[in-house]
Amino acid sequence: MSKLKYCISMIVKFILKNYFLRVYNVNYKYVNFDPKQKGPFFLIGNHVLLMDAFFCNFVLRGYAIPVVNAFVYTDLKKRIGMTKMIDSIVKRKGQSDIQTIRSIRRFVKNGNSIALYPEGNTSYYGTNTESMYATAKLLKMQKIDVVVAKTSGGYLAKPRWRKSKTKNPYVEIEMSLLFTKEQLKDMSVDDIYDGMIESYKYNDYEWNRKRNHKYIGKNRLEGAHRVIYGCPACESINTIKTSGDSIKCSNCGETGTIDDYGYINNTIYDNFVEWGAYQETLIRKKNLNRFVVEGEYYKIDWEKNKKIMISRNCKLNFSNKLLVIEYDNNQESISIVDIKGEAYTESNEFSFDYKNQTYLFITESPKFLLDLVTTIKEA
User: Fold this and answer.
1) If pLDDT is split at 50, 70 and 90, which confidence band does 94 have?
2) Which of 127, 270, 318, 321 is least surrounded by CB atoms within 10 angstroms?
3) According to DSSP H, which parts of the chain are helical?
4) Closest to 240 measured CA to CA, from 209, 268, 198
5) Taking a C-beta distance cutoff of 8 angstroms, is the pair 246, 255 a contact?
6) In this structure, what CATH number is given to the domain that contains residue 75?
């Protein structure tokens, strides 16, 4: 990192820190770790907020370089911010890690710490998603200290599917030394992986049953239908609607409301962790052969890091193992079993790779599409 860019990054950090630590009530805790210590070290943790790396960087000495999803670079403003004002390392889910590892090695060699979230995806339901095993291999390979930041309350404060946070929400971040570089030398990759995922295991709903923090605001369930799609009352799929502080099944009328502690009242499940696990079982049980979802259709030009709009209105028709995309009197057919790198990104985006082309859809059903494609591929 050049001296000029370092100075710019510190100014950006100062501005963001002063804003976000006013609107979020963040309680930092430290265990066997001094946030002002020099790098390099890896900073890992559970991925709850899109701003996770920034919240941790607010208290660190200098700046831990974040590893970010390549889709961030397709937004011009974000790309300028992440490349011209600060440094970042790009990572694409489902793609080769070679270039990412080279970038990490270069920054580590220069004494920079690296902020890396092994789960890749921000939380769907308020608990962990699967962590990438390759992260444990990377930690073993680099042999620098590993610090873990475990975040609690972040999902209740600002889940990925909602536009706004609650009012001055409480978030707790506990930072601790997980592995020293000396310990890593004698550890197997399996042991590193097991220790890694255990260190940031969390469930925001179970955590708040003991803490009783309030998360107050408006429209706290608006957008939840982007991750919750299965009704436990009537077992219908993709019939969940949300508005304000309510969630409702359009098929049977089952309606729930959110309370000040983040729990859903008057429904079979009072939290999205259990509800989410249920619906992922339901979609496999249903064995869906035909389904139609609407959205906006884009293709990604990775050479220019641009989203290219194909159509503002398209239909994704699922029939057995075939996906037919209908738009503007055109259609494209895709073999679902040949889809790779399917992902739910941002709050309302579903993407995948097919024959060297990246497809992206802005839709109100991104998690349903992810689970549907995954289920069909596994069948």
Assistant:
1) low
2) 321
3) 3-23, 52-57, 76-80, 98-109, 133-142, 154-157, 181-185, 189-199, 204-211, 272-286, 366-378
4) 268
5) yes
6) 3.40.1130.10
* Residue 349: domain span: 290-378
Q: Which residues of 45-63 are buried (b: 16+ CB within 10 A; e: fewer)?
A: bbbbbebbbbbbbbbbebb
pLDDT of 320 higher than 90: no
Mean pLDDT across the chain:
94
| Sign of the four-CA dihedral 129, 132, 133, 138 | negative
Provide the token pair at 343.
Answer: 């992902």
Give whole-number Cα distances, 66 to 23, 172, 326, in Å: 23, 20, 38
- What is the distance between the alpha carbons of residues 72 and 283, in angstroms, rounded to a whole number? 30
- Residue written as tokens 């890593």? 184
Structure token pair of residue 221? 């369930």
Question: What is the rounded CA–CA span in Å between residue 253 and residue 274?
Answer: 20
| Spatial distance between the Cα atoms of 296 and 372, rounded to a whole number of angstroms | 18
Mean pLDDT of 278-299: 92
Contact 175, 30 (CB under 8 A): yes
372 phi and psi, to 5 degrees?
A: -65, -50
Q: How would you classify residue 253: left for phi > 0, otherwise alpha for psi between -120 and 50, otherwise beta?
A: left
Tokens of 37: 């210590």
Verify that 206 and 64 share a domain, yes or no: yes
- Do residues 251 and 193 share a domain? no
Domain count, the chain: 3
Token pair belonging to 195: 């220790």
Alpha-carbon span 112 to 142, nearest angstrom: 13
pLDDT in tens, 178-216: 999 999 999 999 999 999 999 999 999 999 999 999 999
Phi, psi dihedrals of residue 30, rounded to the nearest 5°: -130, 130
- Cβ atoms within 10 A of the Cβ of 266, count? 11
Contact 117, 135 (CB under 8 A): no
369: domain CATH number? 2.30.29.30
Tens-digit pLDDT profile for residues 76-92: 888 888 888 889 998 87
From 274, 304, 288, select the one nearest 379 (Cα to Cα): 288
